[in-house]
Design brief:
The complex is a heterodimer. Chain A is about 75% helix and about 0% strand. By secondary structure, chain A is mostly helical. Chain A is elongated and about 55 Å long. By secondary structure, chain B is an all-alpha fold. Chain B is built from six helices and no strands. The chains are: A mainly alpha, B mainly alpha. Chains A and B meet through helix 2, helix 3, helix 5, helix 6 and helix 7 of A and helix 1 and helix 2 of B.
Chain lengths: ~190, ~130
Amino acid sequence: MKQTVNQPNIAAIANGDSQEFSKLVETYKHMVFTLAMRTLKTREEAEEVAQDTFVKVFKSIKHFKGDAKLSSWIYRIAYNTCLDRLKKQKKEMQNRPMDEINAFEVAEMQNALSGMIQQERLELIKKCIAQLLPTDAALLTLFYFEDKNLNEMAEVLEMNANTAKVKLHRARTRLGVIIKEQLEPETIGSYGQG
Amino acid sequence: MDKDKNLEKLIDQLMQEVPLEAPSIDFTAKVVEKVENAAVSKVKYKSLISWKAMVFVMAGLALSLWYAGSWNGSLAQDGSHLATYLNTAGSWASQFLSQFQFSKSFSYSIAAIGAMICFQSLLLKRYFTNRLVS
């Protein structure tokens, strides 16, 4: 999930240099779009929100003090823009119950997933992420964008690290439940044998 | 807890495996175009009264006040038309206003409404600017 980051010239962007700004867009567009896509679930909306995010970044980059990572600052704008869009839609998704997954089930899931061909496995994971609540999907996405750094993720989400840790644990468990549901017993059985 | 650790490990592995989503090919071009359009169509406020005219009016007002103030009570004695006029107008205004009795709460309400209008006009200005710019 990591990308090589070629740091753009922030001062030039603040002075309205659109060439330099296009470098920034190129650097972060995949991450911003992925976050929007996983949160909003549809490509069209994700594209629109990702564009809005970069317009906001351009307008407010003069206020960027450099006390946080540029990437974290951009993700925060992207996350808040996604939340604003969700509020406008007033779309409500059913929250998944926090079912327990025992160690045996985790091992079975692992076997089944490793028995799948890569493309199939990726499709399944994407499908499962799409079923997560927008906030859970955003949380998990940001955690891996920030190299699993809980403090940086908490900073993006504007919450304290402990709250972020609890929410992350819940999001992981919910994703686990969805994956378990997707991998029906017979599927687990057949892949597990391989 | 072992099961939590195992699940955490599994989700870590899966999430890191999923590639990033790719936006449309012309994504960057579209964003840059939006940004450039926004910069061109930025709303610029131009006052209805020019800066020079405003200075002229303010200077005129200051001069009139100074002129009226400098006569201080001996306006009528001077015999000048302006002084007489100001004196008459002042006494007419005080007579006219004395007909009305304003309660304190009424005056405070008027002041509060005035303050609200000023505040809301600022908010409206910002709102319309944002709408026009974005």
